[in-house]
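User: New here, any thoughts?
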Amino acid sequence: MTVRVRFAPSPTGRLHVGNIRTGLINWLFAKGQHGEEGGVFVLRIDDTDLERSTKEYETGIETDLTWLGMTWDERHQQSARFPVYTQAVERLKAAGRLYPAYETQVELDLRRKVQLSQGLPPVYDRAALKLSEADRKALEAEGRKPHWRFRLEGKRVKWNDLARGPCEVDTTSLSDPVLIREDGAFLYTLPSVVDDIDMAITHVIRGEDHVTNTGVQIEIFEALGAKSPEFAHTTLLVGSDGAGLSKRLGSLSIMDLREQGYEPLAIVSHLARIGTSDPMEPAGSIEELAAAFQFGKMARHPGRYDFEDLARMNAAVLHAMDYASAQPRLQNLGADLGETFWLAIRSNLSRFADASLWARVVGGTATPIVEDQAFLSQAAALLPQTLDGETWHAWTEAVKAATGAKGKGLYAPLRRALTGEERGPEMGPLLALIGREKALKRLAGEPA
């Protein structure tokens, strides 16, 4: 059996770390299967809400997934499948599993309040099933349009969850779900099941907030004469303080993380490691993450999304990046000064764009920070004629012997004068890249 999973985002907003994590777990599970090609990752655009769905957000979904390396094997558009959903509706009606209900939202809310006041569960009482044909015609004559509910069998629906173990939902405690609104629009539940059947989805992997939905959907699978897929319900993300993710944590959309300079490999490594027994460190590739993925590594408590962890991941990705990978991006920044330059600066980067600063320090003009010109003049007089990667150590030893300066009092003034910065990469290779002519001018307090 070929594993087939699906990721079904709605094009009604930007993808954020929460729904990308769900998509990523699906991708890792599929691509981690044995065999040359692994499983199949299906991208299904859930655009049944025609009013809120936009082409801009749809394009954004594809851009984000591609940038993260989460390429898809198949792509489907739910808005193109309305006739298929209508056929399923007719089948459910014919089987007596879909029935019209005419209550307004106000009436339903009032009924729930009464039930709660009586100590009863706020479950729909199926009053619509008691309506006669004459009753329905009278309501429609008033201008009412029905919404359509799926009649649950009312039983214990059980499955073995890949993430949670044995699970069950008692559908006698649930209201018959609305599958079609008064305006004829399909709600999420029915198209999802129909598509999972038609697209031969073998595993549905989603957040644990869908556990109850799964009990309902398994009944719909059965009502349509189909075998339900396997399920995995993973824990949700919380903030580093244990509270739910919110705007106070900053922007969590993938687009904004990209614009803030986070690396795609850092983002997917971070999301793949959260809430697992794996170390919080970047993988060499997203394929490496897939090869190591196991539901058994995932904890039962919510994963904590910590920006500090992401920042460390991002720095680690940059520090390990080879010149061949960095070169095209350095070129786009106008900062490609060769492999020696990249190897000299990469261990100091927290964002790739920071390379521009060091390209300017090495190949452009820097304004020296001068506090003690006499000290710098003494140091300049001792600067060797030829500079290489070993010059810094020998030169600073000579300056130390001549001036008595040591520690920060020795190294910091030289760094500030030569780079115009308080901190940065190791000065050994940097000094050689700056060159003797520029170094002497900067030690003299001149921009160079």
